[in-house]
Amino acid sequence: MSALRIKKGASKHSAYDLRDPNAGALESHTLACIVDNEAGVLARVIGLFSGRGYNIDSLTVAEVDHEGHKSRITIVTTGTPSVIEQIKAQLGRIVPVHEVHDLTVEGDSVERELALMRVHGTGDKRVEALRLADIFRAQVIDSTLESFVFELTGAPSKIDAFADLMRPLGLGRIARTGVAALSRGV
């Protein structure tokens, strides 16, 4: 038996559930941070989220400037408008963070994700999986007599839709890279 007991009728809450009901609806935001590429930076950024009970829906990190030793961290998170503002302000105060951009509010942006999906099936299910893959422009990158591994890139909603259609056809494992995003234009 767990040492932690929850009162009858109570439920587990995140920081979002404890908000003021007048604070606004939950919104998904894509944040891009330019940081020094050094040990411990990612841990500090992630620590900000975990320490305050904020959730990360997607996280990608890669070095973008070898000479300047800078990396880009792209985070998709959900919260009320006030929580999102608080996250951006707190990210901006972390010492190795140089820039914080909210791509959701700064204008049009492009978001893409890569997914690998293993789909098991034979007969009609196999044929249907290939037909749907063609419609979604998914590439077969591995094939056996019992399964395919599909590679698909696109907006997260496209990845979700493809996975939903593959579930009844035998979707086994799925690996996703997380969102990579850039603002459009200038």
Mean pLDDT value: 88
Distance between the termini: 58 Å
Low-confidence stretches: 1-16
Helix content: 25-40%
CATH class group of the largest domain = Alpha Beta
DSSP, total strands: 9
The named CATH superfamily of the largest domain = ACT domain
Total domains = 2
Question: What structural category do the secondary elements indicate?
Answer: alpha+beta
Look up the CATH topology of the largest domain: Alpha-Beta Plaits
Strand content: 35-45%
Taken from the alpha-carbon principal axes, the silhouette is: elongated
What does this structure look like?
With 186 residues, the protein is of the alpha+beta class. It has 2 domains: 27-102, 2-Layer Sandwich (Alpha-Beta Plaits), CATH 3.30.70; 109-183, ACT-like. Chain A, domain 2 (Alpha-Beta Plaits), CATH 3.30.70.1150. The protein is 26% helix and 38% strand. The protein has helices spanning 41-52, 81-93, 124-136, 156-166, and strands at 27-36, 56-65, 70-79, 97-102, 109-120, 139-143, 147-154, 171-176, 180-183. The strands form 2 sheets. Strands 5, 6, 7, 8 and 9 form a 5-stranded antiparallel beta sheet that branches. A hairpin with a 4-residue loop joins β2 (56-65) and β3 (70-79). α3 (124-136) packs antiparallel against α4. The longest helix is centred in the middle third of the chain and has 13 residues, at 81-93. The radius of gyration is 20 Å and the shape is elongated. One of its GO terms (molecular function) is acetolactate synthase activity. Pathway: Amino-acid biosynthesis; L-isoleucine biosynthesis; L-isoleucine from 2-oxobutanoate: step 1/4; Amino-acid biosynthesis; L-valine biosynthesis; L-valine from pyruvate: step 1/4. Belongs to the acetolactate synthase small subunit family. Residues 30-105 form the ACT domain.
